[in-house]
User: What shape does this take?
Amino acid sequence: MTDETHPERDANAAASQGDDGYPARHASGVPSRTGAADAAPGAETRSARDALLRVRNEVAKAVVGQEAAVTGLMIGLLTRGHVLLEGVPGTAKTLLVRALARSLSIDTKRVQFTPDLMPGDVTGSLVYDRGANEFSFHPGPVFTNLLLADEINRTPPKTQASLLEAMAERQVTVAGEPRALPAPFMVAATQNPIEYEGTYPLPEAQLDRFMLKVNMDIPSRDNEIEIVQRHAHGFDASNLEAAGLRPAASAQDIETGIREVANVDIHPEVIGYIVDIARATRQTPSLSLGMSPRAATALLATSRAWAWLSGRDFVTPDDVKVMAQSTIAHRLGLRPEAELEGVRVESVLATALDSIPVPR
Assistant: This one.
């Protein structure tokens, strides 16, 4: 089942820092807000960054208290990566992606993953055209800028795997012919962690394709009061236009951001710090699967994106630590005996991070 969303335009926003001068962190592992600018970027850079920061204010018109998840999705766009949103039912996973799509002037499509969904329903297929007496390609919903893969763990592995090529190479191959996907392209997938009946857990190979995994927590009491009050005053999650959401950033802003993020400077000592984190996870007794080199490069990319959103053109070790949990945790595997003892991957990773000297 698929549907389409088409945005428009507007804006207004700001950013804040934690008391220590670094961006505030969030339990999901993704920082919730970017810090004030530390560098004097060019006009085009400032314009793109400001536009992307305004997106957060637009999304907040529909979603309360999930700033960290919004930041994670923006970092996914800036790193040309993909984001997996995990949370119990009712934590606004789907609404968040719909609100983000509404806040960006990009094309977006949604696929509701079900047990009977076929690979061709996602990628597209060849259809016989009687008039032309030939087969013609009908693109699937993956041919878009932002694909919402809703409840991705409810469809069989064969259909899940149909996204692998698209996520890794930004193309799909049908009948032996590769077809390029539009740019930018990001998969924002959702899944429910508490249901196992009728679900198909994502294999490690596909989890590794997600740049970030963001846990969407139950909101605080104050945020929950705000949510209920909005509904009491007529908020309709199915009508985001009525909620006042307008596009605040364009595909050009995203492409500019991608270029700028790739140019963010990173000192060799900070690169060494990332590698030391990777090697520490491989030597941790509680883990059967540590970080791969691809995971290390992913942490490099997300740290750069976070630094750029914070207004800096260089990466600090604190940027690496801020992004470590959401970038790495879903790529690690616990040993069975550690699982039986109730050990969590996040705590093992935190211990590994604390054991590594931070370059100064």
